[in-house]
Amino acid sequence: MDKMFDKDFVAKAIYGLISVLAVLLIMEEHPPTAWKAAGILFGTVLVIAMAETYSATIAETIAGQKRLDRQEIMEIWHDTRPILLTANLPTLVILLSGAGLYSIETALIIAKYAIYLTLFAFGLQVGHLLHASRWRVLLSGFFTTGIGALIGLMKFLLH
Fold first, then answer.
1. Which residue blocks in 1-159 are alpha helix, DSSP H?
2. Are 146 and 120 in contact (CB under 8 A)?
3. Contact between residue 24 and residue 115 where contact means Cβ atoms under 8 Å apart
4. Among 113, 148, 124, 114, which residue's Cα sits nearest to residue 5?
5. CA angle, 127 then 130 then 132, to 5°
6. Backbone phi, then psi, for 6, in 5-degree steps?
7. Residue 115 and residue 50: Cα distance in Å, rounded?
8. How much is the pTM?
9. Residues near 93 by beta carbon (within 8 Å), at least 6 away in sequence
10. Which residues contact 60 (CB under 8 A, 6 or more apart)?
11. Cα separation of 101 and 103, whole Å?
12. I want to staple 98 with a disulfide (CB 3.0 to 4.6 A). Which of 34, 50, 85, 157 is the partner?
């Protein structure tokens, strides 16, 4: 099965995107410079990937009742690629702002909607993985996007 259609890839990509969306929504209040924002986003994605690796390492160590070897740890780290690849999409958008293509405020808006669009696409993929009807596939896309939108709604209501 193609790695982009793998259930683990999709699940981790959604997790990373929603985590980064929360950071972006906070940045909208007091936008930093483009370079600082890119650093914050990249650092956030890296820490999320490291936390994922650490928690998977702990789970495997406990399950196997043994220390993992270097190869096993590297495989776990390799499995964080979906987070590193997809959650850094907003970082790329912010870097283009740093290059002068548009303002940081515009970059934050573009990055936010890029995440919503990507969440929708991965939500559709979840529906396809479940072999659901077309309506359920579409509903899955909207549901996954809605999780991200819920973060925005919470920010709006609590701010």
1. 7-29, 34-64, 70-78, 81-86, 89-98, 104-129, 134-158
2. no
3. yes
4. 124
5. 65
6. -70, 140
7. 21
8. 0.85
9. 107, 110, 111, 114
10. 68, 72, 76
11. 7
12. 34
